[in-house]
């Protein structure tokens, strides 16, 4: 398991932001990197690439932001899809899982221990309140093996 300190930087603010001609309620917070969380009813209906790209170029986030779409199953379980800045949709993102649970807790929607279901598996996030540590527990597994030739790096300056 990993630990992150939930200091005052973890205080969430909810903003109404226009994305692709539609207003969205977005929880915004940082747990060392910037996160925006949108609560949705159905993850399957989300065009994550289109919305994620629009948000990553939104003037509200000049340095980009990790965008999470959170579907609350109940107070102890959420499903999450994540669009990471500079990457696109990912199978899992620990900081997004932590940020989403913190945002949900600050809004009074989640318990202190939450199962987060991501495309690549699940995590258990525990967080009591501001000033308390955020705990993440979940499996770790090997996902990729590859080689990069020296010639690749010669072209990078």
Write the layout of secondary structure elements.
Layout: E1 2-5, E2 13-19, E3 22-30, E4 34-39, H1 48-56, E5 66-74, E6 77-84, E7 88-90, H2 94-106, E8 113-118, E9 121-126, E10 133-137, H3 150-154
Key features?
alpha+beta, ten-stranded mixed beta sheet, 3 helices, about 15% helix, globular, disordered N terminus, about 160 residues
Descriptive account of the structure:
The chain is 17% helix and 40% strand. The protein is built from three helices and ten strands; from the N terminus they run ββββαβββαβββα. The protein has helices spanning 48-56, 94-106, 150-154; strands spanning 2-5, 13-19, 22-30, 34-39, 66-74, 77-84, 88-90, 113-118, 121-126, 133-137. Strands 1, 2, 3, 4, 5, 6, 7, 8, 9 and 10 form a ten-stranded mixed β-sheet that branches.
Low-confidence stretches: 1-11
Distance between the termini: 37 Å
Helix percentage range: 10-25%
Q: What sequence of helices (H) and strands (E) makes up the elements?
A: EEEEHEEEHEEEH
> Which geometry do the CA atoms define?
globular
Quick rundown:
By secondary structure, the chain is of the alpha+beta class.
């Amino acid at each position: 398991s990993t630990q992150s300190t939930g200091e005052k930087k973890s205080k969430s603010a909810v903003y109404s932001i226009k994305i692709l001609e539609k207003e969205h309620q977005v929880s915004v917070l940082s747990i060392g990197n910037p996160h925006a969380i949108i609560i949705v009813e159905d993850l399957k209906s989300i065009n994550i690439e289109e919305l994620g790209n629009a948000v990553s170029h939104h003037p509200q986030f000049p340095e980009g932001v990790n965008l999470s779409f959170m579907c609350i199953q109940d107070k102890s379980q959420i499903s999450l899809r994540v669009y990471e800045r500079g990457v696109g949709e990912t199978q899992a993102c620990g900081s997004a899982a932590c940020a989403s649970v913190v945002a949900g807790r600050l809004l009074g929607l989640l318990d202190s221990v939450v199962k987060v279901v991501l495309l690549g598996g699940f995590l258990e996030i525990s967080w009591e309140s501001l000033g308390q540590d955020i705990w993440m527990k979940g499996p770790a597994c090997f996902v990729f093996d590859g080689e990069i030739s020296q010639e690749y790096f010669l072209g990078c300056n």
